[in-house]
Amino acid sequence: MTCEKIEERRQKKLEAQLEAQLERISDESSQINLLAQFETRRRKKETQKDSGRPLTTTEQEPSKTRTTPSTRLHASSKTSSPRRFRRKFLLSEVQTIDDFFEGRRKADHVRESISPHSSPTFCVKKATGGWRIVHTFNNLDDATIPAQTPIPRKDMDLDAMSGSVIYSAIDLTNGFYQILMRETFLSRPSAPPAACSGSGS
């Protein structure tokens, strides 16, 4: 018996064990976690098999932060991993999803992801008879740490500045520099116009 056949039999046995465990678990979140663990183990084995060497600690335990050329994602360690096991699709859905991503890839709108997190993609039937592609990023959004210094809202800044005539660098702490300023008022603020641009009355 060849190594490939042994590996195939082992894989089928693992899948049978997984199905048996899933039947015993009624909680959906526990099922999803079990599927994610199974998928992670399978990917590790494939990586180890392709490279022909044992995985290092950093490869076995991916960090919570992965860097791409343009984005850095910080995922909270308090939430469960947003990896989700993909369900089986109809053939028409598979064709629609493949065509969708192939068209986006040719237009250079998407690229292959290196993120450890994945979000499910599925199809919803349109009233016209076609398929609508839907991506659910809810779990990734829940695990993403929001910016700790949100940009102030423009209307709140305007309300806070109502009736003011003189401005100083202290106004910068409230984000007033984001509001456009009349040219006649450029000499009023104590901070340089490039850094502070509030509007006075």
UniProtKB/TrEMBL annotation:
Residues 54-80 have a biased composition (Polar residues). InterPro entries: DNA/RNA_pol_sf, Rev_trsase/Diguanyl_cyclase, RNA-dir_DNA_polymerase. Signal peptide: none annotated. Keywords: Coiled coil. SUPFAM superfamilies: DNA/RNA polymerases. The keyword DNA repair does not apply. This is Reverse transcriptase domain-containing protein. It comes from Phytophthora rubi. The lineage of its organism: Eukaryota, Sar, Stramenopiles, Oomycota, Peronosporomycetes.
